[in-house]
Each structure stands twice: as structure tokens, then as C-alpha cells.
Design a protein that fits this description.
Layout lengths: L3 H11 L3 H8 L3 H8 L9 H13 L2 E5 L4 E5 L9
Antiparallel strand pairs: 1-2
Helix pairs in contact: 2-3, 2-4
Length: about 80
């Protein structure tokens, strides 16, 4: 499961705003803000988190780590996803 910090880090790697992530994932900007404002594992519907993860993954983000260490990496840049 994604942590809030991973979502923020993924956006930073892509140069995406919260608004860009909201538009890309189909999740409301208010939900993105709420999720990113929480610590560790966000309290959100699984479907919402899956939409965010899918959107970031399609843009080239890989989520890494385990229970003790989580991270993100940019594996490819899909220029069609970035505006």
C-alpha cells in the first residue's frame, strides 16, 4: 500500500502539481490534498489509492521498498502524460 510520502515524492519526480495528479487519476483535488496531508498510510478508499497509483505508474513511477523502507523511482518518462 502507498504511503502519503511516496505520492508526494512521485509527484515531485514527475514535476506534477496536485491538480495534475487529480486530473490524471480522476481523483478530486480535495482528496489528493487530504491524502497527502496525512502521515504514513493514508485513510482513503482502496479504489482511490489504486487510481492514484495507476496514474503515477503510467507516467513512469515505480514504487519500491518494503515495510521498513519505502521509495519511488522514475523508470520512464511518458511525455504524453506530462503537461
Amino acid at each position: 500500500m502507498l504511503k502519503s510520502q511516496q505520492i508526494k515524492a512521485a509527484r515531485a519526480l514527475l514535476g506534477w502539481s496536485q491538480d495534475k495528479l487529480a486530473n490524471s487519476s480522476g481523483v478530486s483535488i480535495a482528496s489528493i490534498r487530504r491524502i497527502e496531508g496525512q502521515k504514513d498510510y493514508p485513510k482513503a478508499h482502496t479504489d482511490t489509492l489504486m487510481k492514484i497509483e495507476k496514474s503515477l505508474h503510467q507516467a513512469g513511477i515505480t514504487f519500491t521498498g518494503n515495510d521498513n523502507s519505502e521509495g519511488v523511482s522514475l523508470t520512464q518518462r511518458d511525455n504524453r502524460s506530462v503537461t
